[in-house]
């Protein structure tokens, strides 16, 4: 037994379930890659100030959940709690917004870190696939991103997810609403923490999960009634484009989300089989973020989908992904001489592009055939001294059980023909 365990709030991805995680990342990124999004990868840590400004000083992420530390050299860094601020920082640093037509469309996949109370679906190390479209204000772009996420989830076979949609207004109308909401909230019976939040970030009070708070919120002014004409028209267009695309959504006036930088379109993907950690992904428009981190005005929109919760959603719906076996051919040598010969057959097959594995460690025939079975290989190559004397190996079809001798020099071409890869 090992003395060490994975740190609290973390877990290891190990075979065979790790293959599901890879497939989920692939399924989420595939629609993006086919829609003009380029891959971006940023460091796992950044200057802490980037997140303080880019995520928001008053957010839970920055005040409670960030892994911040000082390096030996005196730099103040933080493990990345989310992807958007880093991706925008990278795009600005590389001047991507000046090199051709906007928007700059990017996708990413990676690990994120938040010091949270661990529970099912909530970890301290988790993984997201995300997309950002930087530098354009166009309702079709907001719609595109929501449609691509919907397409990814459907491709995975998920059905019981819902899309919640709202508009948070912009710098014209949101301040007016903010004040009206503050007036309302100041008249409620709230604890000290929440009263402070009313002054710093009143919209987030709408997001409070506690029943005693939610009860008092009936009758709160709704942002919908405060949207300026431009925001109203923009939101109408996004809704119409989604409807035309056949993507169902629900209007959710209370949807504000945790990050400070959202403007206008905001949305969340929720799954009903996940209990209280029901958000599988979310995103929205963040027109002010670039300026907040020292860049030019670059209206942008993006989302991040949680890989861990998507896997839990698949489990909750009982969806098993159709993952092809990774090994096509398994080679089993009988005796020392055969080991050498078959090992070079294996190398030849691999070089020809055939996924091949080998019975290592000198196991007996029974153990080796068990390993061949477990590998999921369609074909097994078995050879002993007598076969080698005849210049052949035995090629066995694992499904039919049929076995034929194949001359050594023809193994690769016969295998390829059998697998239909040539
Ligand atoms: P929640 O309200 O559940 O805390 P969030 O609003 O903090 O979610 P985002 O910052 O929008 O989440 O991140 C996008 C997605 O990343 C979430 O919908 C979720 O799937 C995933 N995610 C966020 N935090 C965690 C975590 N601690 N563990 C696992 N997945 C997470
Ligand atoms: Mg959170």
Describe the fold and architecture.
It is a single chain. This protein is an alpha+beta fold and 422 residues long. It has three domains: 245 residues, BirA Bifunctional Protein, domain 2, CATH 3.30.930.10; 51 residues, no CATH class; 91 residues, Anticodon-binding domain (Rossmann fold), CATH 3.40.50. Helix content is 37%, strand content 21%. The model has no long low-confidence stretch (mean pLDDT 94). Bound molecules: adenosine-5'-triphosphate and magnesium ion (MG). Adenosine-5'-triphosphate binds next to strand 6, strand 10, strand 11 and helix 11.
What would you say about this model in short?
The chain has 422 residues and is of the alpha+beta class. It has helices at residues 18-33, 48-55, 60-65, 84-93, 139-156, 174-186, 192-200, 211-216, 229-244, 289-292, 307-317, 336-351, 365-375, 385-389, 411-419, and strands at residues 38-39, 45-47, 68-70, 76-79, 104-113, 125-134, 161-167, 250-251, 263-271, 279-285, 300-306, 329-333, 356-358, 379-383, 392-397, 403-407. Strand 12 (329-333), helix 12 (336-351) and strand 13 form a beta-alpha-beta unit.
What would the keywords be for this entry?
Rossmann fold, 3 domains, BirA Bifunctional Protein, domain 2, 21% strand, binds magnesium ion, 422 residues, 5-stranded mixed β-sheet, binds adenosine-5'-triphosphate, single chain, 37% helix
């Amino acid at each position: 037994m090992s003395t060490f365990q994975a740190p609290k709030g973390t877990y290891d991805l190990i075979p065979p379930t790790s293959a599901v995680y890879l497939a989920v990342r692939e399924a989420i990124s595939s629609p993006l890659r086919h829609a003009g999004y380029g891959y971006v990868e940023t460091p796992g840590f950044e200057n802490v100030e980037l997140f303080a400004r880019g995520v928001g000083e008053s957010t839970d992420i920055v005040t409670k959940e960030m892994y911040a530390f000082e390096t030996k050299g005196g730099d103040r860094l933080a493990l990345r709690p989310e992807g958007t601020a880093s991706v925008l920082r990278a795009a600005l640093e590389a001047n991507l917004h000046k090199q051709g037509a906007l928007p700059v469309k990017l996708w990413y996949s990676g690990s994120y870190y938040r010091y949270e109370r661990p529970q099912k679906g909530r970890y301290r190390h988790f993984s997201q696939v995300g997309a950002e479209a930087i530098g354009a204000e166009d309702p079709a772009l907001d719609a595109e991103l929501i449609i691509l996420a919907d397409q990814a989830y459907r491709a995975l076979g998920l059905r019981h997810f819902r899309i919640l949609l709202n508009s948070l207004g912009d710098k014209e109308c949101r301040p007016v609403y903010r004040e009206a909401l503050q007036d309302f909230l100041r008249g409620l019976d709230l604890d000290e923490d929440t009263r402070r939040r009313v002054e710093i970030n009143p919209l987030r009070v709408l997001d409070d999960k506690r029943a005693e708070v939610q009860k008092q919120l009936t009758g709160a002014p709704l942002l919908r009634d405060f949207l300026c004409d431009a925001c109203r028209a923009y939101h109408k267009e996004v809704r119409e484009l989604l409807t035309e695309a056949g993507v169902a959504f629900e209007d959710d006036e209370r949807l504000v989300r945790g990050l400070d930088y959202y403007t206008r379109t905001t949305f969340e993907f929720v799954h009903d089989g996940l209990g209280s950690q029901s958000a599988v992904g979310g995103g929205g428009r963040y027109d002010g973020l670039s300026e907040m981190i020292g860049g030019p005005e670059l209206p942008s929109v993006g989302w991040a989908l949680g890989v861990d919760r998507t896997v839990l959603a698949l489990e909750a719906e009982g969806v098993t992904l159709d993952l092809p076996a990774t090994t096509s051919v398994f080679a089993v040598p009988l005796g020392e001489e055969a080991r050498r010969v078959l090992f070079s057959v294996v190398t030849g097959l691999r070089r020809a592009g055939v996924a091949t594995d080998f019975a290592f460690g000198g196991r007996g025939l029974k153990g080796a055939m068990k390993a061949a079975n477990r590998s999921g290989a369609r074909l097994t190559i078995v050879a002993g001294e007598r076969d080698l004397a005849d210049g052949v190996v035995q090629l066995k079809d694992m499904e039919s059980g049929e076995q034929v001798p194949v001359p050594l020099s023809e193994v690769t071409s016969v295998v390829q023909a059998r697998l239909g890869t040539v």
